[in-house]
Every structure is written in C-alpha cells, then in structure tokens.
Amino acid sequence: MQVGKPILYSYFRSSCSWRVRIALALKNIDYETVAINLTKDGGQQFSEEFQALNPMKQVPALKIDGITIGQSLAIIEYLEETRPTPRLLPRDPKKRAQVRMVSDLIASGIQPLQNLSVLKQVGQENQLTWAQQAITSGFNALEQILQSTAGRYCVGDEVSMADLCLAPQVANADRFKVDLTPYPTISHINKSLLALEAFHVSHPCRQPDTPPELRA
Amino acid sequence: MQVGKPILYSYFRSSCSWRVRIALALKNIDYETVAINLTKDGGQQFSEEFQALNPMKQVPALKIDGITIGQSLAIIEYLEETRPTPRLLPRDPKKRAQVRMVSDLIASGIQPLQNLSVLKQVGQENQLTWAQQAITSGFNALEQILQSTAGRYCVGDEVSMADLCLAPQVANADRFKVDLTPYPTISHINKSLLALEAFHVSHPCRQPDTPPELRA
C-alpha cells in the first residue's frame, strides 16, 4: 500500500493532464508532479519505466491510494467517489448524464482525433487542417448541446467534470487557430472557468515543467 | 415527460451501439430500436431530424425517462444509476476505477480512431492500415492491463462496463483483420463474453436492421 502524496504523471501541455490537475485543485488534494515530456528524448512516455506504469504510454496517470489509474475521466470519477467534496457530478442522475455526455463528447469525440500521436501519423503538412476539422466538428455539436444544458457553466451553475474537459479543449482549439466566433456559449463558459482559481493554478503555463518561454 | 419504452437509436454494426444493447439486455430493459443507417442515403445520421436529437450525428442515442442521452458510456452510467441490477460497476471504488480505465481506453483510445468518419478522412487506400494500427496499439496496452485486472472477465469474475466495450472492439478488430494471436487474455475474455445470452441477442448479426446476408 502506497503512502504519502498522490503522484500525478503529467505534461504541462497535455489537455487530458490539465483536466485532472483541475480536479485535484478543486478538491484541494495535495500531490506531487512527475513531468513526462511527450516530445523530449523521442517522448518520455515511451520509456520502459513509464510503460510499466501506464501501458497506454499516455499522460495523465495518477498514483493514489496504492493503485495507478490511467485515463483522465476514470481518474476524475475515482477522485469523485473517494473525495466527494466539492462534487464534480450533480446529484440528479439526469444532470449527471448530461455532464458525462459532454465530457465523453470531448474525451472520445474530439481530443483523441487531435492528439499528438494521431497528428504524427497524419503528417506535418496535414496536421493543422486535420486538427481544425476534428475540433470544429465537435464544437458544432457541443455548442448546440450546451445551449440547452448550460447555466454559468456547462451543465447548470455548478462546475462539473464537463467543465474540466471544456477549458483544456478550448486551449487546444486556440493552439490550432480555430475561430471561436461561431461558439459563443463555449467561449462564454470558458471565460468564466478561466477566472476560477483551480483553473488558473492548473493552467499549462504555470506547471513545474512549463518551459520558461511559455510561462505566464 | 416521455412515457413508454425507451428508444435506442442504433446501427447494427456500430460497436458503440452494441455496448448499449448489451447493457439493456443485461439489465432486462425492454426497448424499441430505431435504426440509423450510417451508410445509406449518404448517412442517415446526417438528417436534420437526427441531428436535432444528437448533434454529434452519431449512434447510439437513447431516449429514456424524458431525456435523450448521447455517448455510449454516459448512457451506460445512467442506466447503472437508475437501474442498478445487475450491477455493471463493482462496489469497490478501486475496482470501479479499473473498469472505467479499461472502458475509457477502448472508448477514447481505440474506437474513435477507427470509426467510420475518421476512416473516410484517411482515404480508401489507407483505411485498413490505419485501423489496424489504432487497434493493435490499443490492444498492446489493453492486454498488459488485463493481465493484472482480469478474472473470468475484464475486471474480476463479474461482467462489467469494461466487458461491454471489449467484445464490440474485438468484433471491430476481426473486421479489420487484426491478428489476435498476441492477445490471449483479450481473446479468452471475449470468448467467455460471447457465450453469454446478453451478448448473443445484442450481437450485430441479430439486429432488426441487420441485412439478411449478414444475419446469423
């Protein structure tokens, strides 16, 4: 049984790592970061040591309570079940379904199509178009869904797991120069989220492994 | 408030639809199927009527209890919370985390990369190689994880949400001619699953919209 602080294997720029960093910040869970640089040394996620920890060779992975969990949403659901305050899933099962639908839309429907390993396969010259297409196609759907679920945040007026997926995905959209004008609801929620302390401290530009030139 | 039977918008061959069909069968939930043919008429998921229902233009979607839920895992989690018997998530939070990790590995890490819309983008001549690469890369990780989590099924000896993802993904692997020899744990679990009634009745070759030549 592991004792001591949870360890988050994270990369500052990984949007999936950011989701988990927000959850840890919101729930006020003290943790250590082990930086896994996805581009240095041909990708530190491919090291034997890291593969033994997460065979998917992806970040994030969280060592906590004697186990190691991969997959950001599985990690967040575990944190929610074992450290329920503040809650990241509403009480009402129908609202919970909306939160999970929005989360999965981003985590299965958008992010995997524009992550580093896929873009490598697509080839340098097609990367930007490919990523933009994945994001706009997902955001077209997301904007429509949020128009009926959102209050101040993605589902109603409380921050939920869906918001932990939204802000990092909007950051990816920015990175790939996606025009956000057609997405007023997404943009508005994102702005509200970025004003929150937990989103601020967990931001890619403020991590232990953020290179000096990208710090803010 | 909707009354009457739940309606599942499904396509016989969609692996994500199959996940939900298994859940409905295991939980003995009576439902109606509305077939959405993903290839006919340029794709019935693109109709205005269906887009209003699920802006992601994907199956499955489930109309139930007065709401419509998209995203297969969000649907399954909702069914689990509102119709908890038999359970598809273990009681122990650590085991639940393992179930969700395996489910997300497939639902975010494999399936989205080999689904119909991505393969269209990749182009006819590259489709098979692309799909095989996505599946073998995911299965390499999955095999390693299952070696430490599996009993008779993906996590221990009870069927869980992870198994609802596994069998449909193995069917996709078959379809894309992936050699399963390197994956004895995956293959063994899949065989046990296919022997279960709920996996049998929900199988792509036994759906209302299965074409006669693919029926078994």
From TrEMBL, chains A, B:
Isomerase listed as a keyword? yes
MF terms in GO: glutathione transferase activity; maleylacetoacetate isomerase activity
Protein transport in keyword set: no
Q: Which cofactor does it need?
A: glutathione
Name one cellular component (GO) term: mitochondrion
Q: What is its EC number?
A: 2.5.1.18, 5.2.1.2
* Membrane-crossing segments per the record: none
**What reaction(s) does this enzyme catalyze?**
RX + glutathione = an S-substituted glutathione + a halide anion + H(+); 4-maleylacetoacetate = 4-fumarylacetoacetate
Q: Which InterPro entries match?
A: Glutathione-S-Trfase_C-like, Glutathione-S-Trfase_C_sf, Glutathione_S-Trfase, Glutathione_S-Trfase_N, GST_Zeta, GST_Zeta_C, GST_Zeta_N, Thioredoxin-like_sf
* Biological-process GO terms, alphabetical: glutathione metabolic process; L-phenylalanine catabolic process; L-tyrosine catabolic process
Residue intervals of the GST N-terminal domain: 4-87
Give the domain of life. Eukaryota
* Keywords (A to Z) from UniProt: Cytoplasm, Isomerase, Phenylalanine catabolism, Transferase, Tyrosine catabolism
Q: Where is the GST C-terminal domain?
A: 92-212
Q: Which pathway does the record list?
A: Amino-acid degradation; L-phenylalanine degradation; acetoacetate and fumarate from L-phenylalanine: step 5/6
Q: Where in the cell is it found?
A: Cytoplasm
What Pfam families does the record tag this protein with? GST_C_2, GST_N_2
Family statement: Belongs to the GST superfamily. Zeta family.
Tell me which PANTHER family the record gives: MALEYLACETOACETATE ISOMERASE
According to UniProt, the name of this protein is Maleylacetoacetate isomerase
